Amino acid sequence: MRAAPTRDAMSRRTLLFHRLGRVEYDDGLALMRLAAEAIRAGTRGATDHLFLVEHPPVLTLGRSAARGNVVAAPEWLERQGFEIHETDRGGDVTYHGPGQIVGYPVVDLSGRPDVRRYVGALEEAMIRACADHGVEAKRHPEHRGAWVGAKKIGAVGVHLSRWITSHGFAFNHAPDLAHFRAIVPCGISDPRLGVTSLAAELAARARPAPAREEGEDRLALHLGEALDREVSPSAGPDLRTVSVVPVGADGRVLLLRRSEDRGGFWQQVTGRLERGESPEAAARRELLEETGADVTVEPLGYRHAFALDPTLNRVRPGDLAIVEETAFAARLPPGFAPSLSDEHAEHAWVAPGEALARLRFAGLRRAVRLAAARFSAP
Questions:
Q1: Which residues are known catalytic residues?
Q2: What is the pLDDT of residue 377?
Q3: Fewer beta carbons within 10 angstroms: which end of the chain, N or C?
């Protein structure tokens, strides 16, 4: 992806590039916060972070957002699985969802505190990424972002705290463009302006869209160039884990409360992969160790990434640690009585709705929703 660094590059800050895949929106906010704290602490020297992620369908409202720019009915949004989040970034209403490349640069700008230049760098990275595929994108004279003619292909919204950035850009690689009809994108109501994607522009030229990974690589490279950073790919997650949602014969979910010295919070079965172990094997082993159930586990088709909570971070204490977790579910037999390990203090059989209310982390809640839908289907 990159050439060997020159002597000049050795004196520049590094932009550590993380390709994370699916990230829940709340987890993305925590990821940026913990990365900013790591930069302030200087735990990795002159290193900034670029997180490239994909969110489930979500509408985000910036500080200047008007609620009237969400035009879809709440019932429709709920049926489609949309979430709505208020944020501390600038701008109005934006959409994030599958097929979009969302970039969260967490960058220390104190060496060159120029907000205009930084926002321009985000736009420039998207413009250059389009040019790599023969699509001419430009800046708009009135509106931020990257534009192909009168259609926006990439949005920008940033937040700064003591010159460390968060939020960033959303590049429309190959999303469902119909989802943008749920909002007035970025509050731009001009009917002459619209939204497009790289996939749509290339399809109009009878050309296929590049793989997502290629699009991410180009965006990272160009952003590093625009920010005068040396781009360095991350080695991958610091920890790989599994979660298992145990569902009883009556549809209730088995939750376990961790012992006080392990956090004292409720969760389903969770655990880390051992060396050489597949996620499925780890899920079945953890289910047996934590509940005594020796049954088949079913993959939920859900893998996501998140930053390890500092109170649980024994992987790299005091620094950012990233986890990749794969979710499973298991149907427990009638009359099953769990046998807990010393990791947990108690258990509870609860309806899926109550499980969602008790669970602390967004990814665990998503897994419960998927498991409930799986086992309630005919």
A1: 186
A2: 54
A3: C
